[in-house]
Amino acid sequence: MKKKILATLLAACMALSLAACGSSSAPAASAGASASASAAASGESYTVGICQLVQHPALDAATQGFKDALTKKLGDSVTFDEQNAAGDSATCATICNGFVSSGDDLIMANATPALQAAAAATSETPILGTSVTDYGSALSISGWTGATGTNISGTSDLAPLDGQASMIKELFPDAKTVGILYCSAEANSAYQVETITPFLEDAGYTVTAYAFSDSNDVAAVTTTACGENEVLYIPTDNTAASCAEAINNVAQPAGIPIVAGEEGICSGCGVATLSISYYDLGYATGEMAYEILVNGADPATMDIQFAPQFTKEYNETICAALGITPPSDYVAIAA
C-alpha cells in the first residue's frame, strides 16, 4: 500500500528504536509487545496476502503459525488476505496476481505451486514461502548457497531423507521392495523421489516410483503400487495429503504399510513418519515477515530456514490394524 512521507519517517524511527531494543536483555514477550505498540503508535499498517495451495492439516498448521507470529508482533497493525486455491495451480496464479494488483506489502506462499505462482506474479513485492521442500527445484535456481538472491525467501519442510530411509529399514528390515507414491505435477515431490531412492537402494531395497498426475488417478496408481511392493513411501506431497483417505482405503485392506514424509499424510494413511512441526515452520516464516516489514530485511539475502528438529511418530490405529509394533522411541500421533 502507499504510505505517506510522515508515516515513512516514523517507520524509520521505529526501526531504529526496535534495533536498540534488540540489544537489551528485555524478555522476548515484552519486546514483542513493545513492537506492536510502536507499530500502532506510528500509524503504520500492513496487508499480507496468504496463498495456500490446498486445505490439509500440514498447510493449515503452517498458515496458522505464520499468522500467530505476525499477530503477536504487530497486533491490529497487520491485516491478512487469506485465500485457498483448492489444489489448483492456475488459481494460485490468479490469487497472487490479485495480491500484487492490490499493493499488498508481502505475500506468503504456502506450498510449492503457490510459491511458483507468486514468483511469476512479481519480482518486487517480498515473498516468503513455507511448506516448500527445495527452493532450488521450485524456482529453477542452480548453484545457490542458501539465499535466493531474489525477492523470495522462506522456510523449508525438507526432512532428512536418509533418516526416512533408515526408518523404513528399521521398521521393515525383511522387506525387499519399496514403492514410492507421489504426484508428478509437484516438482518438490519429484526431487524427494530422486533423493531418497539411492538411500533405499543402498539399504538393499528394490525401489519403484509410481506417479499419479492428480487426485483422479490416486486410487488406481495406489492399487498398482500395493500389488507390486511390500512397503510404500510417500514424500511430502500436497496431492497425496489431500487424498490420504483414498490411499488408505486401498493400502490398509491390502495389508501394505506406508511410511510418510510428514505427520498429516501419516495421520491419514501411514504407519510412521519422521516429521516436523508445520506450525513451528509457519511461525518461523512469520518472524521472517516481521523482519522484512518492520526492520527492512531484504529477502534476497535471507537464508532459507529449516526445521530445527524431527520426531519419530506413528499412527496408532493403522499400526494396530496391520499388526505393527513401533520401537519405544516413536511417539503416537495425537488423535
Keywords:
335 residues; alpha/beta; Rossmann fold; seven-stranded mixed β-sheet; six-stranded parallel β-sheet; 19% strand; disordered N terminus
What does this structure look like?
This protein is α/β, with parallel strands linked by helices and 335 residues long. The protein folds into two domains: 45-157 and 278-303, Response regulator (Rossmann fold, 3-Layer(aba) Sandwich), CATH 3.40.50; 161-275 and 311-332, Rossmann fold. Helices cover 50% and strands 19% of the residues. It has 14 helices and 13 strands. The chain has helices spanning 5-22, 28-42, 57-74, 89-102, 112-121, 135-139, 161-171, 187-202, 218-228, 238-242, 244-254, 263-269, 278-295, 316-322; strands at 46-52, 78-84, 106-110, 127-132, 152-156, 177-183, 206-212, 231-234, 258-260, 272-275, 305-306, 311-314, 331-332. It has a seven-stranded mixed beta sheet, sandwiched between helices. α1 runs antiparallel to α2, α4 (89-102) crosses α5 (112-121) and α9 packs parallel to α11 (244-254). The longest helix has 18 residues, at 5-22. The model is unreliable at 1-38 (pLDDT under 50).
Quick summary:
Helices cover 50% and strands 19% of the residues. Helix 8 (187-202) links the parallel strand 6 and strand 7.
The averaged pLDDT comes out at 88
Proportion of strand residues = 15-25%
Biggest sheet architecture: 7 strands, mixed
The beta-strand count equals 13
The global form is elongated
Number of helices: 14
Helix share of residues?
Answer: 40-55%
In which order are the strands of the major sheet placed?
Answer: 7-6-8-9-10-12-13
Radius of gyration: 21 Å
Poorly predicted segments: 1-38
User: What's the domain count?
Assistant: 2
CATH fold-level topology of the largest domain: Rossmann fold
Helix-strand sequence? HHEHEHEHEHEHEHEHEHHEHEHEEHE
CATH class of the largest domain: Alpha Beta
CATH H-level name of the largest domain... which superfamily?
Answer: Response regulator
What structural class do you assign from the helix and strand content? alpha/beta
Please report the distance between the alpha carbons of the first and last residues: 43 Å
